[in-house]
Design goal:
By secondary structure, this protein is an alpha/beta fold. It is about 25% helix and about 20% strand. The chain has a single domain, classed as Class I glutamine amidotransferase (GATase) domain (Rossmann fold, 3-Layer(aba) Sandwich). Strand 3, helix 2 and strand 4 form a beta-alpha-beta unit. It is globular, with a radius of gyration of 17 Å. The N terminus is likely disordered.
């Protein structure tokens, strides 16, 4: 799905922050507690290179004890392919890869920013997504990233009609793909969003919806997969994020959020496997 966009050069290099883990769930740093996951084996000659594009500005890192979304995605994904190279680019701090060819895949995180905001780093990130897609790089995106990808390729992003979606919500899975192992008809997943994709780009295939909203996960071509939810966020972070909100949320929304955060354990391990199998497909 080639798209030509002429824009800003990707001048600022990402910080090559790499962490090494074993093949089991990791507790270090993020305080996450997860079920043990078996690793996904790569051929001995292969080495997958993944860049996590963290879109959370530094000023918000304090909201979860200074632990970044990139660190959480490291903890979620690295145990599945311990031999992979996973680096972090803090794109909201103007850290970008030197070249799109430095990596085989890109993981876009959530953000307190809106995909509709007019920031230089968001425009630059959108251009990187287009360039990566033109070279058929694997792209997986969550929350803000899910919305940014949709908007970049012609979709629309707008406010949730029912207000904030915060907590552990059921997603109904509409389609099966080869990379969906283990298979599941429904999954529970943490969400923390005031906006959503209101119109998918042409050619996008929706494969999951909540009880309230459509298009909470979609694919675009064979190389892009996006989900509105947050498999990387632990319970601690959800509680911290809600506590940090002093405005822009009604008392009723806060009560509903508190109830839904405590609404059982999310299926983060299933989504972690789907993401990594998609990257390697």
């Amino acid at each position: 799905m080639p798209v030509a966009i002429t824009g800003l050069p990707l001048a600022a290099p990402c910080a090559m922050r790499r962490r090494s883990f074993g093949a089991v769930a990791v507790l270090a740093g993020s305080g996450m507690i997860r079920r043990e996951l078996c690793s996904i084996t790569l051929p001995m000659t292969a080495k997958f290179r993944l860049a996590i594009l963290d879109a959370v500005p530094r000023v918000y890192w304090q909201d979860d004890e200074g632990i970044t979304d990139a660190e959480k995605f490291h903890d979620l994904l690295q145990p599945l392919i311990p031999q992979a190279q996973i680096d972090t680019c803090y794109v909201s701090e103007d850290e970008f890869p030197d070249s799109v060819d430095d990596y085989d895949g890109y993981m876009l995180t959530g953000s307190p920013a809106s995909a509709n905001d007019d920031f230089d780093w968001i425009r630059r990130l959108a251009e990187l997504v287009v360039e990566a897609d033109n070279k058929n790089k694997r792209i997986v995106a969550s929350c803000f990233g899910h919305q940014l990808v949709a908007k970049t390729f012609g979709g629309s992003v707008g406010k949730n009609e029912g207000g904030w979606v915060i907590g552990n919500y059921r997603l109904n899975i509409l389609r099966e793909f080869d990379w969906m192992e283990p298979q599941a008809e429904t999954t529970d997943l943490y969400h923390f969003n005031q906006e959503r994709v209101t119109r998918l780009p042409d050619g996008a295939v929706s494969f999951a919806h909540s009880d309230e909203y459509d298009d909470f996960a979609y694919t675009l071509g064979d190389n892009i997969m996006c989900v509105q939810g947050h498999p990387e966020q632990p319970l601690r972070a959800m509680n911290n994020f809600l506590s940090s909100m002093t405005s822009d949320i009604s008392a009723a929304e806060r009560r509903r959020a508190r109830a839904m955060i405590d609404n059982g354990e999310p299926d983060a391990d299933i989504w972690a496997r789907w993401m990594m199998r998609f990257f390697l497909a």
